[in-house]
Amino acid sequence: MLAFSGIATPESFEKFLRDLGALLVGRERYLDHYRYEESDLRELFELAKKEGADCLVTTEKDAVRIAETRACPLPLYYLRLEIDIIRGAADFDEAVGRICFPQNGSRSPAG
Asked: What is the mean pLDDT of each run of 10 residues along the chain (111 residues)?
């Protein structure tokens, strides 16, 4: 498989795949929040074929940047990751409230 991602820490994504037993024959790393161009996708599929990959895998965050209607010569999968906040959940919720709802810092409509 060939892994590609545009995330802050691609090493952790790649390690996670290997820990699941994936054999990575190649990887491509892009800048965080990278907007994939058609030429990028063409190059990825060409590289995957050259390296003998049977599929490509990316993150869910990256997958949403690829048109669902795009024809893919190899299977293209994405990995959905979820996080559990062990400590500091209240601080996290407060930060999300300030960022997403700057008017009142609250995530509830009543504020």
From this structure: 94 94 96 93 96 96 90 92 78 79 56 45
User: Could you tell me the CATH number of the domain that includes residue 11?
Assistant: 3.40.50
Secondary structure letter of residue 53 according to DSSP: -
Give the up-direction half-sphere exposure of residue 35: CA atoms within 13 A in the CB hemisphere. Answer: 0
Residue 100, SS3 per DSSP: helix
Range of the domain at 58: 2-79
Domains held by the chain: number: 2
The residues pairing with 79 across neighbouring beta strands, listed in sequence order, are 59
Pair (59, 39) in one structural domain: yes
pTM, two decimals, is 0.74
